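seq as requested:
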Amino acid sequence: MSKQSKNHEDTFDSEANNKRAEIEAVIQSRRASQDADEEAISTIIEYIEEKIYPFTFNKNGFQTIEKLYRKFELADIFEAIDTSATKYLKYNEDDDLEKDSVETFIKRIGGIANLMNRPPIDQKIAYVKGICRNRFDYWNEGNGTAILRDYVESLRCCNYSEDEMIRDFDEDVIPRTKEARNWSQWRSLIEGWTEDLYSRSQEQRSFRQAVNEGLDQEHQSEDSQYIEEKRKGGANSYQAYKPLRDMVEVLCQNELEKAAYSSANQLCNAVASMIEEERSELLSVFQPYQNHQREGTDWRKPTFYGWVNAHYKASKA
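struct tokens:
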């Protein structure tokens, strides 16, 4: 960041909203050309610089915003900018912006935009993980994600609706997470709740036993649609899934070397979350994931789970 002459102005709100609407209308009408793309990126930078005055982007700023522009819709970018500004921009006693807060604000824009496009329950999971990272001296990202995914699965097996799961997080998980003193206490709490929920469902209890013993026939077979695609060699064929399968193999090996997983299901949840957060482009050709985005189905089972389960079983051999 570089600093201009000191004269902080705080004039956003209604004017900013009107300007945003004008900016979006102009950019959307001209986005087809490269010049329009560059103009759009420059305009987004100007919008950000209004919020961080007297700071401005350095020469790498254009590339940073270009990545956001290529990845997200304009409305999501602007909303993410506003959200990040409200949450992270801080002022000192002299009403000057703190440089560290400006850097944090810009760094968080992409993550916020990405989170906005996820299902509400995934947003709640991300929020809980953020609380844990900020509160606990020790936090295991992979295991923490798997624990929360397993908890959500236990809610589903007890026939919780999406709204009921959101309410559960708002009324129970988030408040108790804020009260937890450390990783061990939090893990014990969530895993205890998970076990209680699973115990209320005979069907889920049987499923988990079968998974842990490696005998679950449903998950030893691949998705029938996937098998048909392999035979046909179509757009979503066996070869098209290879980059995703290879990444699953790498992540499974890394996770099994550094952490103890009690079940293939827990490992599957952890690896799936990593790919969604860090390598989502690999899911663009994965048909079960496309079905998940359209219909909200569980994209991990049975095909993705089958890949993970094979590595989990091999590690126990």
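The beta strands are 2-3, 55-56.
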